[in-house]
Write a structure and sequence with these properties.
The structure holds three protein chains of three kinds. Chain A is built from 18 helices and 27 strands. A seven-stranded mixed beta sheet of chain A has the order 10-11-12-1-13-25-14, with helices on both faces. Chain A has a six-stranded mixed beta sheet with strand order 16-24-15-21-19-20, with helices on both faces. The model of chain A is unreliable at 1-5, 17-38, 570-593 and 611-622 (pLDDT under 50). Chain B is built from 14 helices and no strands. Chain B has a domain at 113-348: MetI-like fold, CATH 1.10.3720.10. Chain B is an all-alpha fold. Mean pLDDT of chain B is 78; it is low at 1-23. Chain C is 71% helix and 1% strand. Chain C contains eleven helices and two strands. Chain C has helices at residues 16-37, 39-56, 58-61, 95-130, 133-148, 151-162, 166-193, 196-203, 208-244, 255-264, 273-301, and strands at residues 2-3, 11-12. Chain C has a two-stranded antiparallel ribbon. In chain C, helix 2 (39-56) crosses helix 4, helix 4 (95-130) packs parallel to helix 7 (166-193) and helix 5 crosses helix 7 (166-193). The radius of gyration of chain C is 25 Å and the shape is globular. The model of chain C has no long low-confidence stretch (mean pLDDT 81). The chains are: A alpha+beta, B mainly alpha, C mainly alpha. Chains in contact: A-B, A-C, B-C.
């Protein structure tokens, strides 16, 4: 009996180690294979945490999806890499008619889609009409063509868009031009569920710098350089976006060489990576801001008051006092970690439009106190502000469950406001709930943020009277205005900038509008947070930041970096291997540990056998 | 985590006690099975209804959130809202008619919920299945040994270890193991991957891919198995001890049968019964482990999906995962009931 | 009534109440003695008391400013030093301070949730065990139905609906864990219900409520108490898990939310073991303590399993 069991142990152990052996021997590097004598395709890999929800440009919501769309499809113009001003893309030039009722775009000649079909103005007209006349198609692009009544292509290189009124947005239409010969087969109903996914041998037809060839949901999205791209074939042959579960995993992958670019890094991980050899970090200014929003006087768009906001906030002095009570630099240092103190609602990255106020809200608790005194809220013996009615001034402050910076910010703000005597009731709610509370006016203060596009129209509209809540069948729905700000002068200026096609004049109006919002203070803009990125500079060079030297190196408005990135070293492919091997053991299998695992397996098996052996001997005496 | 694992382990099988008198032509076994399935279906119906109404109570404006920050024309927003706001009875009937409909979209992922779930089920089954398999074998063996050698070193040591493991939050154990063996510390090598199911670029169908997945499984499965082992060992030990106190065993020993025979032929098989059924009944415990462990190790299964759904929150997705988990537990309970009926003749009478 | 005999002091015959009280006192001291002899139970008790004392003394040991994000003085995410014995979190707060304050929340939530669960469970259990026929069956079915629903998904769903706050977590855990107690109480009630003296009491005219309160409840209580201690252990584990998932009150540091903080701020990637190890060890210690006490109480309450 005993000899049999030992023999079987040996057999099992041998089998176990044999099983593990092929892995250590046949294990292949999962980064690009080592360079041979011939030129090796250059592969650039980006690590992302948010998988694309849909490759169908009409359906996608997440920002990574839009990165894919701009790689696949052209638009008429692009925001420049220097300062977001519109530069030619598909349209070589464009012109507004004298009566300002039409815009004529000259489309480049001789362009082809990636399947060889000609790319003409007819495709452009088709794409625009699809959105203008569409139903579901309106969701993602309707805002851009709100004023466009029709699109026509009198010949292959001319596109004419007719507008209801002068529209500056016409220079910045972020509508993707789709191949008519493909999309005409997908009607208005089918477009909702159409996935636009490539199949082996059938890449998605597009005309951007890259062609979408392969996708595995939740894993990766792969592109190949488009040889027909009108600006010339990019230096990168293969572009892959790999999906990771969180920012940490991406950082690890960057270190190990699995990816060449990491986007949206967390501050502490970013710090840990600084100064590592072969990696360059990018501390990019970003298009977003965070704010403490206040209940200006919640009402429906027609002016009917709603909700239960504290009337104290309707006094501009109280709102300005709150602005003075917030120490923005501390928020930048401790919460945002990387960023700049906030001022107006158009972030400084848009240098032509941003207004740097001449009368900034400095951190000045004394001034805040004085303003509150003026407004009639004086300190009582307990150090609390009481209003004319004798009641202590109490404000509810709502933070967002989904965001840790939000929760930290409200804790700081609550502390500072308590210091000047305002009693704060802090609550953390889900974003879903916050929208509803905003809409119904049942709040006092809240924390949120916005991301601003190059064209300021959308962001400015969030402060118009018309964007306050609406009511239907007894239910109140939120508009875009979460503070319920309403100012006649502002609305008039908004209407003006909406039809001003001269860029300089429009910038002027936008700055005036920012000043009004700043002075009236329905928001206390806390900070402009930075976007933290990093890439392997030992492998790739010539990234283009937008704006130059300030903004993000990828995930921009436009495909600038993708078109200009080149391998870092002169020899093709060598640089990839060099760092690939020096990054050492990847997260795959390591031969040394395979041996260790085999040893453990043997020990386990032996252990089990030992235990069962005793029991067997027990049974033997039966 | 629904019942405290005290030293009293055997579930109170009072379900069998009532209503077992009148014969109606069906064999008792079939009747029992039918009743079990019937009550399972009834419970399931309750769950579906409960699910529906619970989420209606959720505050929030999902369309508002969906369109915030995006340049969506106001008419379009109104249209999207109108689609969502049908009368509650109509919504209820639509939902109950087909809770698995593919038109239910996840707000966060912008894709049909059941498609998302279908993609992830495999990963969870792989993780949880392996862990349960390992844990039930190891745990049962430990429990048997500990009970039989009650009071000796093995018993005290294993009881201490299992009690401690049981007292640990499983995700904490996972985080510790991840730091020790995934990231690495000064004293332990960081050799395991820190997350995910497979290295990017590896074909999951190749041999290399299978081994790669197995390598990724080591830490999460170890964590889950450790916690389950504790539960199963404690239960097995307690039920065997209970069983060993039974009269018929004393009689058997008095008759001259050897200890080991008594143990192997009578005590253990009878004690395994409540353990096995308890393993099935405590599937809820297993599920909660899956949710937290998948989160810690970024394992792309249903648990991580549930965790992601908490952002927002993504109501449709939470509803669907809750329904799925409930179905799983109900089915497991039915299996447990049926197993009990098959293995324990006392129940069928 | 006095009875005298020649040569003796007057002796008073004890009243029924005095007899009862004396018997109860004797039984309590017997229980205490047998508990004391249970070594693991005593260890558990000592550990638990230590945590309770620390929790009560929290504001004395660490003033509230030490756990405020806004007044944090330490370097973010740094390992243990003299000034910060357990290192700091991502906002620069002392982990030791967080843990000490966390003890309060974890203990309070665990106890409160268990009290709620025990109340519901005992009432439901006694009623479903005592009332036979339709009502009992319905109650039993209801308990079974609740038991079948998996705990964590139900808790997640309830917490999402109710919102993230401490009270809601207590309610959620209370609502989801009463069936365990109910089941146990029901089986005890069923076994007691058959005893002859209840028949006699009923014959003497005792009503249902009286019977349940005066006869069944006291007999059920010892086991319920033991069960309760174990339930606190589970409640603390549940609260830790729910807080880790982000469903607890984000503004108060329970041990689970400290671990959530560690997880979301990438403590694992940078190897900040000081952020991860201590809170978990505390949970293990307290849960073990309650478990050991509970098992000791069970041994006392159920003589059938002495020495199990």
């Amino acid at each position: 009996m005993r000899s049999t069991s030992w023999r079987s142990v040996a057999a099992v152990a041998a089998a176990a180690s044999l099983l593990l052996l092929p892995a250590s021997i046949g294990y292949a590097d999962e980064s690009p294979s080592p360079a041979l004598i011939s030129a090796e395709p250059t592969a650039f890999t980006v690590g992302i945490t948010d998988d694309v929800d849909s490759l169908n440009p009409f359906t996608g919501i997440v920002s990574t999806a839009y990165e894919m769309y701009q790689l696949m499809y052209p638009s008429l113009t692009s925001p420049s890499a220097e300062d977001f001003s519109p530069v030619p893309d598909l349209a070589e030039s464009w012109e507004e008619s004298d009566d300002q009722s039409t815009w004529t775009y000259k489309i480049r000649e001789g362009l082809k889609w990636s399947d060889g079909e000609p790319l003409t103005a007819k495709d452009a007209a088709y794409s625009f009409n699809r959105v203008i006349n569409g139903n579901y198609e309106q969701t993602n692009y309707g805002g851009y063509v709100a004023n466009v009544t029709k699109a026509e292509a009198p010949d292959d290189t001319t596109l004419v868009l007719t507008v209801k009124e002068p529209t500056p947005l016409m220079e910045n239409l972020a509508v993707y031009i789709l191949p008519e010969h493909i999309w005409k087969d997908i009607d208005g109903k089918a477009v909702r569920s159409y996935e636009n996914e490539p199949t082996p041998g059938n890449p998605i037809v597009g005309a951007g710098p890259f062609v979408l060839t392969e996708r595995q949901k939740g894993q990766f999205i792969r592109f190949e350089a488009n040889p027909n791209y009108y600006k010339g074939k990019p230096s990168i042959d293969e572009l892959t976006f790999r999906v990771y579960k969180n920012a940490d995993a991406v950082a690890q992958a960057l270190r190990k060489g699995e990816v060449d670019f990491a986007d949206e890094m967390q501050a502490n991980v970013f710090d840990a990576i600084q100064g590592e050899e072969g990696i360059t970090t990018v501390n990019a200014e970003y298009y977003g801001f965070n704010e403490i929003g206040m209940n200006y006087g919640a009402a429906l768009a027609d002016g009917t008051p709603i909700g239960d906001g504290n009337p104290a906030l309707e006094d501009v002095r109280v709102r300005q006092a709150i602005n003075h009570a917030i120490d923005r630099q501390t928020l930048v240092d401790k919460v945002a970690k990387y960023g700049t103190p906030g001022s107006t609602i158009i972030p400084p990255i848009y240098s032509t439009l941003h207004l740097e106020p001449a009368n900034p809200f400095t951190y000045d608790p004394a001034k805040a106190g004085a303003l509150l005194d003026e407004a009639g809220y004086t300190l009582n013996s307990d150090g609390k502000r009481v209003g004319p009615d004798g009641e202590p001034l109490t404000l509810r402050l709502l933070g967002r469950q989904e965001s840790q910076t939000s929760q930290q910010t409200v804790q700081f703000v609550a502390g500072w406001l308590e210091e000047i005597g305002i009693t704060i009731d802090t609550k953390i709610v889900s974003e879903d709930t916050l929208i509803e509370l905003n809409g119904e006016g049942r709040f006092d203060l809240f924390e949120w943020g916005w991301v601003v596009e190059p064209d300021p129209d959308y962001q400015l509209s969030t402060f118009t009277c018309a964007q306050r809540s609406s009511e239907e069948d007894g239910t109140i729905y939120a508009g875009l205005s979460d503070s319920h700000f309403c100012n006649e002068e502002y609305d008039a200026l908004y209407a003006q900038q909406a039809v001003e096609t001269d860029a300089a004049k429009r910038a002027d109006i936008v700055k005036q509008m920012q000043q009004i919002v700043y002075d009236e203070a329905p928001y206390a803009v806390t900070f402009y947070y930075d976007l933290l990125q990093a890439y392997r500079s030992d492998r790739f060079a010539n990234f283009v930041q937008q704006p130059t030297d300030r903004g993000p190196a990828l995930f921009q408005f436009g495909t600038w970096s993708y078109e200009s990135i080149t391998p870092a070293s002169a020899e093709d492919g060598d640089s990839t291997t060099a760092s690939g091997s020096e990054s050492g053991s990847d997260s795959g299998l390591n031969p040394a540990l395979v041996a260790g695992l085999a040893a453990v397996a043997v020990a386990l098996v032996a252990g089990v056998v030992l235990v069962t052996r005793r029991r067997a001997s027990d049974e033997d005496t039966e | 985590m629904d019942q405290p694992v005290s030293t009293s382990a055997a579930p109170v099988q009072d379900g069998a006690a009532d209503g077992a008198g009148q014969s109606s032509g069906m064999s008792p076994g079939t009747r029992y099975a039918a009743r079990s399935i019937g009550s399972g279906v009834a419970t399931l119906f309750f769950v579906v209804v409960f699910n529906f109404f619970l989420f209606r109570m959720l505050p929030g404006d999902p369309i508002g959130l969906y369109t915030r920050g995006r340049n969506v024309p106001p008419e379009q927003i109104a249209k999207l809202r109108a689609e969502l706001d049908k009368p509650i009875l109509e919504q209820f009937l639509t939902y109950v008619a087909n809770p698995f409909s593919s038109t239910i979209n996840s707000a966060r992922f912008n894709r049909p919920v059941w498609e998302l779930i279908f993609e992830r089920v495999g990963a969870t089954l792989l993780l949880v299945g392996t862990a349960i398999l390992i844990a039930s074998i190891v745990g049962t063996l430990i429990g048997i040994r500990a009970a039989w050698k009650r009071g000796e070193t093995f018993d005290s040591v294993s009881s201490a270890v299992t009690l401690t493991l049981y007292a640990m939050p499983e995700f904490w154990l996972g985080m510790i193991l991840l730091i020790m063996f995934g990231v690495g510390t000064a004293i332990t090598p960081g050799v395991f991957p820190i997350g995910g199911i497979i290295s990017p670029g590896v074909d999951p169908r190749s041999l290399e891919g299978i081994l790669n997945v197995a390598w990724h499984m080591v830490l999460p499965v170890t964590t889950l198995a450790a916690v389950y082992v504790a539960e199963y060992a404690l239960v097995m030990r307690a039920s065997l001890i209970d069983e060993m106190g039974q009269d018929y065993l004393t009689v058997a020993r008095a008759k001259g049968l050897k200890d080991k025979v008594v143990r192997r032929r009578h005590a253990v098989p009878n004690a395994i019964l409540p353990t096995v059924t308890l393993i099935f009944m405590n599937l809820g415990f297993v599920i909660s482990g899956a949710i937290t462990i998948e989160t810690v190790f970024s394992w792309p299964g249903l648990g991580l999906l549930t965790y992601d759904a908490l952002r927002g929150p993504d109501i449709a997705l939470l509803q669907a995962t809750f329904l799925l988990f409930s179905i799983g537990v109900i089915v497991a309970n039915i299996i447990a009931d049926l197993l009990y009926a098959v293995l324990d003749p006392r129940v069928r009478v | 009534m006095t009875m005298t005999r020649p040569g003796m002091d007057p002796v008073r015959t004890p009243t029924a109440k005095q007899v009862t009280r004396a018997r109860r006192r004797a039984s309590r001291s017997r229980s205490w003695r047998s508990f004391r002899s249970n070594r693991s139970g005593m260890v558990g008790l000592v550990v638990l008391l230590a945590f309770v004392v620390v929790a009560i003394l929290a504001p004395v040991l660490f003033p509230p400013s030490t756990i405020s994000v806004t007044q944090a003085t330490g370097e973010p995410m740094s390992p243990p030093t003299a000034g910060f014995p357990l290192g700091t979190d991502e906002s620069g707060r002392s982990i030791l301070a967080l843990i000490v304050w966390g003890a309060r929340i974890s203990l309070v939530v665990g106890l409160a949730a268990t009290v709620m669960s025990m109340l519901i469970g005992t009432v439901m259990g006694i009623m479903s065990g005592y009332f036979g026929g339709g009502l009992g069956l319905v109650l039993n079915r209801f308990t079974d139905w609740f038991l079948v629903i998996p705990f964590l998904p139900l808790a997640i769903v309830l917490a999402t609906v109710l919102g993230a706050s401490l009270i809601n977590i207590i309610v959620v855990i209370g609502i989801t864990s009463w069936p365990g107690t109910a089941r146990l109480v029901r089986s005890q009630t069923l076994s007691i219900g058959g005893r002859p003296y209840l028949e006699r009491a009923r014959a003497l005219g005792a009503g249902n409520i009286h019977l349940m309160r005066r006869h069944i409840l006291p007999n059920v209580m010892p086991l319920v108490l033991a069960n309760t201690t174990l339930m606190v252990a589970l409640a603390i584990l549940s609260e830790t898990t729910l807080s880790f998932l982000g469903l607890g009150d984000p503004l108060s540091p329970s041990w689970g939310s400290i671990l959530d903080g560690a997880f979301t701020s990438g403590a694992m990637t940078v190897g900040a073991w000081w952020y991860v190890l201590p809170p978990g060890l505390c949970v293990v210690a307290v849960v073990l303590a309650f478990t050991l006490i509970g098992r000791a109480l069970e041994d006392i309450a159920d003589p059938r399993r002495q020495g199990a």
